[in-house]
Amino acid sequence: MRRFSWQNQSTEDDSGIDVTPMLDVVFILLIFFVVTATFVKESGIDVNRPVASTGVAQESAAILVGIRENDEVWIDGHLVEIYSVRPLIQRLSSENPQGSVVIQADKNARTEVLIQVMDAAREAGVENVAIATESY
After folding, report:
1. What CATH number has the domain bearing residue 82?
2. Which parts pass through the membrane (predicted)?
3. Which of 47, 76, 87, 115 is the most buried (most CB within 10 A)?
């Protein structure tokens, strides 16, 4: 009988490397890093911060609170009333207990609102409260 060329192929053609386990490991690492990453919550507004020559860079800020020129308070991109600042900071700080609160107050905002936000943050259990400034 006559043999065709496709019948003489050996079974040694399957000598490639199986990358499926490597892809599984890569996806598991990706999921691990996404789950354990700390995300910074932006205040959601742009403010005119005051200038200070003695400002110190903050290592990490878990919660950013913005105060606009017209005394609007913004947390996590949402306009909030002053009476709801403490419960919001309490909830956000429970997600990252070692984090701090950074208040981005406009230089024309009233000091009274700034003090109310600082008091609310400390009443929420956050001891590390800072005010954002511009450097020279």
Report:
1. 3.30.420.270
2. 20-40
3. 47
